[in-house]
Amino acid sequence: xxxxxxxxxxxxxxxxxxxxxxxxxxxxxxxxxxxxxxxxxxxxxxxxxxxxxxxxxxxxxxxxxxxxxxxxxxxxxxxxxxxxxxxxxxxxxxxxxxxxxxxxxxxxxxxxxxxxxxxxxxxxxxxxxxxxxxxxxxxxxxxxxxxxxxxxxxxxxxxxxxxxxxxxxxxxxxxxxxxxxxxxxxxxxxxxxxxxxxxxxxxxxxxxxxxxxxxxxxxxxxxxxxxxxxxxxxxx
Length: 236
Prior knowledge:
By secondary structure, the protein is mainly alpha-helical. The protein has helices spanning 16-48, 57-75, 89-121, 129-152, 167-191, 195-200, 204-211, 214-228, and strands at 6-7, 230-231. The radius of gyration is 20 Å and the shape is globular.
């Protein structure tokens, strides 16, 4: 990062009492995001009843990939409410790499089961907005992973070490990661308009499920913008 750019601090301009209240609200929000991602994954897995059909593996694999692994892979960098807050930056990067690798494996597995299910039932591919956005999400996930690999292995970019990488590359990686996560959230929301999900969940419960994926997305967006959003210097 450039030394002449300051980044937005947490709770700037607040009194001590307000500051601690703000910090505890942020911690509660991060913990709630962890719980929401895990709960969505477990509930969708239970609803899909994996093993009953080829399609049944698709919701489970995709929820595991994006609702759990991608969410945890980003939130582990949070200073508030992360179970890995005691880890060093290098340790967090390794865990992030592991989570994103699991995202790719689970997403590819879920896609394979979906394609196989469509072929067996002779139903058309890419016939809904969910499927179209799902393919877009997979493509940008692979591209973002390729960028991350270049950051982990800088020799792929013909530089000697990670310290020699362009300062803005990490910023671009984080910003594009946010866009990938928001696109994945949109895909999950669109899945709840599918015939399968609406047959399983109805009434007010469906509306609750519709809002659930949005909460971790807000927490992730707040985390990344607070960490990387530049602000103007205050001069007297």
